[in-house]
Amino acid sequence: MRDIQSEPDLRQIDIDQAGIRNIRYPITVKDRVNGSQRTVASINMSVNLPRDFKGTHMSRFVEVLDKHKENVHIDTVKDILSDIRTVLNAKRSQIELNFTYFMQKAAPVSKLKALMDYNCTYSGTLSEVEGEPLLDSVMTVRVPVLSLCPCSKEISAYGAHNQRGIITISARTNRLVWIEELVDYAERSASSPVYPLLKREDEKYVTERSYDKPVFAEDMVRNATMLLDADNRILWFEAAAENFESIHNHNAWAMISRTKGDISVCTPFRQS
Amino acid sequence: MRDIQSEPDLRQIDIDQAGIRNIRYPITVKDRVNGSQRTVASINMSVNLPRDFKGTHMSRFVEVLDKHKENVHIDTVKDILSDIRTVLNAKRSQIELNFTYFMQKAAPVSKLKALMDYNCTYSGTLSEVEGEPLLDSVMTVRVPVLSLCPCSKEISAYGAHNQRGIITISARTNRLVWIEELVDYAERSASSPVYPLLKREDEKYVTERSYDKPVFAEDMVRNATMLLDADNRILWFEAAAENFESIHNHNAWAMISRTKGDISVCTPFRQS
Amino acid sequence: MRDIQSEPDLRQIDIDQAGIRNIRYPITVKDRVNGSQRTVASINMSVNLPRDFKGTHMSRFVEVLDKHKENVHIDTVKDILSDIRTVLNAKRSQIELNFTYFMQKAAPVSKLKALMDYNCTYSGTLSEVEGEPLLDSVMTVRVPVLSLCPCSKEISAYGAHNQRGIITISARTNRLVWIEELVDYAERSASSPVYPLLKREDEKYVTERSYDKPVFAEDMVRNATMLLDADNRILWFEAAAENFESIHNHNAWAMISRTKGDISVCTPFRQS
Amino acid sequence: MRDIQSEPDLRQIDIDQAGIRNIRYPITVKDRVNGSQRTVASINMSVNLPRDFKGTHMSRFVEVLDKHKENVHIDTVKDILSDIRTVLNAKRSQIELNFTYFMQKAAPVSKLKALMDYNCTYSGTLSEVEGEPLLDSVMTVRVPVLSLCPCSKEISAYGAHNQRGIITISARTNRLVWIEELVDYAERSASSPVYPLLKREDEKYVTERSYDKPVFAEDMVRNATMLLDADNRILWFEAAAENFESIHNHNAWAMISRTKGDISVCTPFRQS
To answer: ipTM score here?
Structure first.
């Protein structure tokens, strides 16, 4: 059979990224407490495609994914990206893993425990810099929190509007930073964490604690920035906070992005 | 050319509904204040298909929709459904219009106005009952509200967790009930309406008012039920309330459905 | 502390369902080949609430879920529903589990294997009928398939438009019917299954096979109906097919629902 | 009342963007054929916030939006962004308008017309460069198309798998480029446009035409690149193609981004 994809292309145009998107696969993620946990990911994979070839061989992405299936793991991503580069004969390979991560969380007073879910994204790019393979990776955690409005508290005789919000932290690091650590930075930036299971004594505690620590979306990204700035393992970060305002049908939002270290080798390519 | 769709089908199986889904079109909706408003709808349309035919002619749905395009209107839905029955030679035709509806809303103290958006669905079925065409229609409004937790208020020394929620009301009526009226029933069932535009004096008012009127999701559907029960134009309703809990990453929810009048001619068919 | 939820309510209105929605938890599902598989579910849980009580105790749903967490399993759902009835002192309890299910699927010629994902929903209601607990459960599978248009094939000199579609089958059964069996019914109703991994010889096979077996959305639900009708374990089903038409920006859709056995004890309550 | 937002902030951290997200408003968009069209937009608005202030005054975004409500228009975006800068006393203001755009489209043979919908995003940033206000804007169109696989056609005795795809084109320009022109570039890059309304003679035409013009996702972005490269009004673009593969449950994807002119003044800030 003819291999159309391998044939030359006359337009002479390099393609930045070609690959597959939105394939779902079970993966294993490093877990600070339990070593690892099984979850389900929606995955994007791509390579650069030089001007000389008409198409990439999309099925090979799935073969690499399936080969590593007992071990599609943030630790083994470099191997996966390396395998992709080899089987597709590419200079640059990319992967994006979107998954739910679970952490056991204890209520603040009763100490009752249940599982809390966090949407996370790990994206990695393996490229060649001066002949050497180089991995650029970004971990993103999306952390639901409680935010209580400082303005509403200040101007009202009693009460204060509050709401669920999401703090999103993305980080490039020079050493392992646990998902648990980024979640902790986000939760400490808010009026209160949210919990999967609260009894009445816990609900009282969370209500009063959040009233004592009012924050705007702007405060949450500034608080996160202070924590992320102080962590020397982090070379670059973006912190965003979005509040699902309880008094509006639209959201309040703030964002800070900072480069702290040398990320000159990082890929400027779009991950999603 | 052969007309495959019109050919006989040997399996002898009636099809409950066959049609098109998720076609987007500009429509006009009745507006209590301004007479009418233009908006954008995602539309589903279908007919029953007798066992004798292999397929329905899907393009005719679009022709009917486009013919009425300056007037795809809740008042003209019966004409559209009647046209569909005719061109597709069907006993029963159905339409579902999902659209954003805007209302100008004044802030409670400053009286400053801006537009508030509501997700609405109108679904209609035209069938034949004893030789006569009969329209069964359901209007659904989804109303964002503020809910403040009675338990949190009661047990806490100060403050109370609150959040955005959605009250969804569906109704079958024997006379016109305005979208504005269903929205009003929903908003009166909550701790407070939400607003597009609030200045500080408004925010103080909303904060204090909601603290004075705490409601569970359960309270909101009971409050709505009392209002819907008292409205004699309403033959059947379903009221649901979902709170995007500010202390959890999951939602609290309650639902009540009631038949008040004779809806024996109403269609049991699935609308979505 | 006062227990507001347990206090009497003066409105004297029964609530059909009160509970939590969209809580995510890891669950285990029965797997025909491997015994069981771990996946992630989005879960809704509810109970009826009599007119005498102001609210339900939402945290108890999470406690029951967490108690069964190593074994949140379609086989143990009856125990979970029974526990919910007990801790919430309710007559009727309901659960809905939405999850991704994986099956290893071999390509038709090369026999290369990879994992294929299916969106599934299991919903169960435990109520009391003449003093006895009775479980009503519905399994829903959503199966991506390839459909090739019979009209386009017939009228064109060459080629035929085809597209990805989704066949959704819901079933009430009197004995275990495997997810794998419902998936099989759906795939046999289409022009071809879709696959996670296809090499060129497989792609040739799928292309030619689907051209040899053209189906409308209407054909797919009729084909599924014949298979579901012939399975005596199935008491009730709904089969729907939606094609993401490659020649339009809207979808073609058909649906058949059938009651075959005695489902008089089944709940009419809304699951989603 | 105290104005908390205007108070000084001790953390001394500049915020890149602070504002509101996901507010829905009716807007008017320039229309090449009819002058203008009314549609519904989901809107994000933001400003930079200097380190000296605790928060931004979110309600002012809504006031500006409502002030321009009869004329929230791509032509007037500069005025809106300028007003935002003024009322919020900011150096930089940003807006993102996500909306459905309708074009009347004639079937290729019957010439029957109906409306086709396109998801579009306009994003604009007004900043100050050497004391002068400067607008950087990006228009994005998402165009559904038909793609037919060259490999499947080549290796199969008959037929070829094809599917709906989406070509997304974003462009920075130095003069007006109509939405209609970007849509045209996308449609010419595919196997065929898709249509809202096709009769049998049209379906035959589209089927045969797409069979005669097979394209990979890679071909579509290369074809688009050639057209976008040749248009001198375009300074920068990104073209992506995603195919909802009819033989898989995942998508094929390719992307090319190119800077052609001087975009040194363009904002690097994230728009979504």
So the answer is: 0.94
CA–CA gap between residue C76 and residue C73 (Å, rounded): 5
- Which helix H or strand E contains C69, and what residues bound it? none
Sign of the torsion formed by the C-alpha atoms of A65, A69, A72 and A77:
negative
3-state secondary structure of D140: strand
DSSP state of C70: G
Q: Cβ distance B94 to B45 under 8 Å?
A: yes
What are the residues of chain B with a beta carbon less than 8 Å away from any beta carbon of chain A?
116-117, 144, 146, 148-149, 151-152, 155-164, 192, 194-196, 198, 200, 203-204, 206-208, 210-211, 244-250
Residue B272: the pLDDT is 44
The percent of chain A in helix, strand and coil, each rounded to the nearest 5, is 25, 40, 35
- Nearest chain A residue to B155, by CA: A204
pLDDT tens for residues B181-226?
Answer: 999 999 999 999 999 999 999 999 999 999 999 999 999 999 999 9
Cα–Cα distance for residue pair B119/D39, rounded to 1 Å: 15
C-beta of residue D145 within 8 angstroms of C-beta of residue D164: yes
For B110-141, give the DSSP string: T--EEEEEEEEEEEEEEEEETTEEEEEEEEEE
In chain D, which residue's Cα lies nearest the Cα of A247? D59
Q: Is the pLDDT of residue C271 over 60?
A: no
CA angle A96, A99, A101 (to 5 degrees): 135
pLDDT, position D261: 80
| Secondary structure letter of residue A66 according to DSSP | H
Cα separation of D73 and D79, whole Å?
10
Q: Which helix (H) or strand (E) holds C226?
A: helix C217-229
- Fold observed for domain C15-265: Urate Oxidase (3.10.270)
Is the pLDDT assigned to residue B177 strictly greater than 90? yes
Give, for B212, the enclosing helix (H) or strand (E). Answer: helix B200-212
3-state secondary structure (DSSP) of residue A67:
helix
